[in-house]
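Q: Please design a sequence for this.
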């Protein structure tokens, strides 16, 4: 790994942690860090360093917006790298994300790596980074498990049923759901019964619905 590495995370502690690990590689790369998309943009696309110098760009999904360039999160930054620096390998290092986020970036960005921060282990991370740099893809265990479960269950509900589940998750009671959706209370109750049947919940309440949806990585 003779080229440079870019790390973009709003938490400076994460940047320092990843840099610490990278410094242990046999061929230590030059590491640039940023806590905002604006700073990352300046480093990658406006400085004397050309984007082709970055062999890997690590980034979180949740990052401060760079409105002037219409870059709102790490996904937008990754898309820009795909256009301006297609040879740079993209690795998402995530903490605050939904399973829908995970599925979306895996399909739209097709990053070389996705790592849940809970999966970071010094004894294995360096091996995975070197593997990514060599052209392989890596999904950390938590990420792989969530993607498999989400893919298996993403078509379990139709649009209305999924909206009902999300409203339940927000704490909206059954009687108030019709205020948010253009359906009757009777229709809500029928949909909820279908949701329970699909989730194989014989008897249970809203908490059971949410618990099972999280278990199946629908939420």
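A: Design:
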């Amino acid at each position: 790994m003779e080229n440079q590495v870019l790390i973009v995370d709003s938490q400076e502690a994460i940047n320092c942690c990843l840099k610490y690990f990278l410094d242990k590689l046999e061929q230590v790369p030059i590491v640039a860090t940023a806590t905002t998309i604006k700073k990352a943009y300046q480093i990658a696309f406006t400085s004397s360093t050309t984007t082709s110098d970055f062999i890997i760009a690590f980034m979180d999904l949740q990052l401060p917006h760079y409105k002037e360039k219409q870059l709102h999160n790490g996904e937008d930054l990754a898309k820009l790298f795909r256009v301006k620096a297609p040879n740079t390998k993209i690795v998402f290092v995530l903490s605050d994300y939904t399973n829908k986020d995970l599925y979306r970036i895996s399909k739209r960005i097709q990053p070389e790596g996705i790592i849940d921060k809970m999966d970071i282990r010094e004894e294995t991370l360096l091996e995975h980074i070197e593997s990514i740099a060599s052209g392989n893809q890596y999904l950390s265990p938590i990420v792989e498990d969530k993607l498999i479960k989400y893919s298996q269950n993403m078509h379990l509900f139709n649009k209305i049923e999924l909206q009902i589940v999300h409203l339940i998750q927000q704490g909206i009671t059954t009687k108030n759901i019709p205020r948010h959706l253009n359906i009757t209370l009777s229709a809500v109750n029928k949909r909820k019964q279908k949701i329970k049947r699909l989730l194989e919940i014989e008897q249970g309440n809203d908490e059971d619905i949410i618990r099972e949806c999280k278990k199946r990585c629908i939420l």
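Q: Thanks. Anything notable?
A: The beta strands are 4-8, 30-34, 54-59, 89-94, 113-116, 138-139. The mean pLDDT is 92.
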